[in-house]
Amino acid sequence: MLLAETAAGPAWSWNLITDVQEMWSFPFMVNAFRAGTIVAVVSAAMGYFVVLRRQTFAAHTLSTVAFPGAAGAVLLGISAVYGYFTVCVAAAVVIAAVGWRGGGGGADEAALTGTVQAFLPACGFLFIALYKGLLGGPQSLLFGTFLGITTSQVTVLLGVGAAVLAALALIGRPLLFASVDPQVAAGRGVPVRALSVTFLVLLGAATAEASQITGTLLVFALMVIPAATAQTTTGRPGTGLALAVFLALAATWLGLTTAYYWPYPLGFFVTSYAFAGYLLVRSGRTLHTWLSRTRAPLLYKEATA
Amino acid sequence: MTGLLSALAPLDQPFLQHALLAGTAIAAASGLVGHFLVLRAQIFTADALSHVAFTGAMGALALGYDLHMGLFGCTVGIALLFGALGRKARPDDVVIGSVFSWILGLGAFFITLYTTSRSTTNGHAGISVLFGSIFGLSAGRASAAALVATAICLLMLLIARPLLFATLDEAVAAARGVPVRTLGFGFLAVTGVCAAEATQAVGSLLLLGLLAAPAGAAARLTDRPYRALALSALLAVLEMWAGLAASYAVPTMPPGFAIMAAATAVYAATFLVRRPAGRGRLRLRTAATGT
Amino acid sequence: MLHPMAKARTAAEGTVPPPRAPASEPPAALTVADDPVIALRGAAVRVAGRALWSGVDLCIGAGEFVAVLGPNGVGKSTMIKVLLGMLPAADGEVRVLGARPGQANHRIGYLPQRRSFDPSMRIRGVDVVRLGLDGDRWGIPLWPFGARRRAARRRIEEVIELVGASTYAYRPIGTCSGGEQQRLLIAQALVRRPELLLLDEPLDSLDLPNQSAVTALISRICHQENVAVVMVAHDVNPILHHLDRVLYLAEGGAASGTPEEVITSPTLTRLYGTPVEVLRTSAGRLAVIGQPEAPALHTDRHADRHAVGPAAGGDHAAG
């Protein structure tokens, strides 16, 4: 709070239209909004399936490995974008090859994923130690930045995002079937294993994309929280998917706007908005079940009395 | 003899002594806790706690409290919260994911608050919390860490058998009078303390490896629960020593990376070992002739 | 048709009974009335405000094999939980092994409604059995020698042999088949020489040969070692010949007695409040047919799945 006042930042006026006009008069903010929108839509759509398939642990692993990818790319002197995509997709293939069977499934796979997830950041740490320059610090790699997103970066994001969404739309229905009831789906001739591999690769690409905006540690937030909120609210796949996308967009836009006025990391704001929504829905639901539970015996007593 | 002496010469250096003292105890505790994390399929919980440790430490620094207070308070508190959120003190993956991704965001907020509000050298505090600073431990800190870790070890040994029962056979254990729910909470709290301790050694981003890799390796090497428990602790200690030695020998290599590399190498090596599938029959024959 | 007791005895012939510790159990001569293992008088239970069953009277003596039958959602598993003291009885009196429920659980062997072990669970079957013996003690076993440890090891080997699991007890339990896992878990329930066995659908997910083998095993333990057995079952046919008594739960009411007394058209008609007909095939199999829809069809598991009980609330309501 104190900091926000002392820092020479733009001032918030209560005229929303002028605020937005002023904010969007900076090309970097426009690019940030474009990139944020793409990332939010793609992450929420992927996240819906992540939550449905209980693959949150795998998703988190993929987001963690994005960091050494970027750090390695910086060390080699190439764009971090290539690092993100290469390492995330490779890690997705590895996890799929080992045969991940869903969150908390096999103890062995969990141990393996955990080891991979710790070893790769350790490599990232080594790369940073070797690079020594600490280019902006690893903090922006870990926690994200929305400054300096170029138009060409947005184009890349749009291309990859569209490809991921198109692929997801193509496999969406059988993937839903395979996620809900793998055995029956396999019996119907749905290629469950191939779908699971494809999904993980798509997840890798989506993670790599989102990492550049939210930072590698917070991608996971954009994927999991809106989808979890949506699935707590509704059981219908179509509505849930739409709701997840909407929530992610809302969190991202609100987060970007707040981060523009306050000199704190974007990731913090985005996760806070998303998590506030989640808490709201969860507590509403808990209240609802609690009410119905306490009301049931009353009704019973009335009936017996 | 002289070769041995010269190899042990670096042990005269106090920073290495402290690292060895704290590292050994922390590794043993992590190995014991990790064994049950793998068995209970709660690795993701540990993962979440390790990231929570980061937020706790940064929060304490940013608000001007003692770093260790923030670490322990945050990890134990969140561990108990996870227990409360889940059925029978076994939290759901999605709940964990949602909670801890927000807490990470909070960590990002604290790190910014800390680095911008105080002198520029503070930038390294975040890095040392994320990746560990075992060579920077003071004598007092090292012995405190060793004490806490030893307490964790003793506690784990005390609850090992009922916890194993509750893990494998929850309903039967509950019927037999094992306090399944309390054990679940207690174990989560111990995991929280262990995560906070290990953060000081290998950092919050890497401590998951110390929990998962030795336990995973031990589970691949033996099917006997108590032997696996001992093996897991032993492997963790050996990996810690190997990592410290390697990092001392090659100064550009950060200790966190070296320890993780050793742990990963041992775990990878267990995939080359054939699983002890045939031994069951052999034992069976001796058991059959014995009776 | 042979008397169930006699039939069970003939089934058990040819197997060598393992040595028993005679001090740990009441003598077989005691009659049911003197020292009932389970005594329920006017017992009722409510779950979330809903009365599941009420007015249940039951008295089970040592060495009796009793089945709890009834349609889905009627509270069969709840009965087991009440006997274990995990759920309080809303009404009436419940005594288990001469104490309040939950007070004598160390003398009870319990087999919950089974989920199978994950294939990646790399713990040997023998370790799972051993947890049944000492799993509730604090600390870890440190000293592998000594008379107590030898006795424990001998007991585990003995009980594994009793259930016929010797060939796979030293394999990781995740790699065992459903029937093998079930036998190991029965061994776990038996390892402390319980005086009462509470089995919740132990035949579920077993094929027909395994069903009859496991039933024969339980019956043998029940009658030879004088252990009272309460088994929740879906289907009466595989266990019918071994049963001493049946407790039939249906829509709030209950009936107990020998299978011949309970599974009859008049009794079930009274319980359900609609006409129910019981057919007996020449092979001794029973079929329960209701009007206009079959309330529960006790022929085999697959037929049972298609039948809709009058109190159909799903299995989970019961568990």
Automatic annotation (TrEMBL), chain A:
- Cellular component GO terms held in the UniProt record: ATP-binding cassette (ABC) transporter complex
Cellular compartments annotated: Cell membrane; Membrane
Q: What's the protein's topology in the membrane?
A: Multi-pass membrane protein
Q: What is its main location?
A: membrane
* Transmembrane segments annotated in the record for this chain: 32-52, 73-98, 110-131, 143-172, 192-225, 237-256, 262-281
Gene3D superfamilies hit by this protein: ABC transporter involved in vitamin B12 uptake, BtuC
| An individual GO BP term | response to zinc ion
What keywords appear on the UniProt entry?
Membrane, Transmembrane, Transmembrane helix, Transport
UniProt cross-references to InterPro entries, sorted A to Z: ABC_BtuC-like, ABC_TroCD
**Entry's family note:** Belongs to the ABC-3 integral membrane protein family.
Q: What is this protein called?
A: Metal ABC transporter permease
The organism is Streptomyces inhibens
UniProtKB/TrEMBL annotation, chain B:
| Gene Ontology BP, a term | response to zinc ion
Q: Name one Pfam family in it.
A: ABC-3
What is any one of the record's Gene Ontology cellular component terms? ATP-binding cassette (ABC) transporter complex
Q: Quick one: where is this thing mainly located?
A: membrane
Q: How does it sit in the membrane?
A: Multi-pass membrane protein
Q: Is Transport among this UniProt entry's keywords?
A: yes
Q: Which domain of life is it from?
A: Bacteria
**Similarity-based family:** Belongs to the ABC-3 integral membrane protein family.
Name this protein carries in UniProt = Metal ABC transporter permease
Q: Which organism is this protein's natural source? A: Streptomyces inhibens
TrEMBL record, chain C:
Pfam entry (one): ABC_tran
Comp. bias intervals (Pro residues) = 16-25
Region described as Disordered: 1-28
What InterPro entries does its record include?
AAA+_ATPase, ABC_transporter-like_ATP-bd, ABC_transporter-like_CS, Metal_Ion_Import_ABC, P-loop_NTPase
Ranges of residues in domain ABC transporter: 38-275
Against PANTHER family, the record matches this protein to: METAL TRANSPORT SYSTEM ATP-BINDING PROTEIN TM_0124-RELATED
What is the name attached to this protein's record? Answer: Metal ABC transporter ATP-binding protein
Recorded source organism is Streptomyces inhibens
The upper taxonomy is: Bacteria, Bacillati, Actinomycetota, Actinomycetes, Kitasatosporales
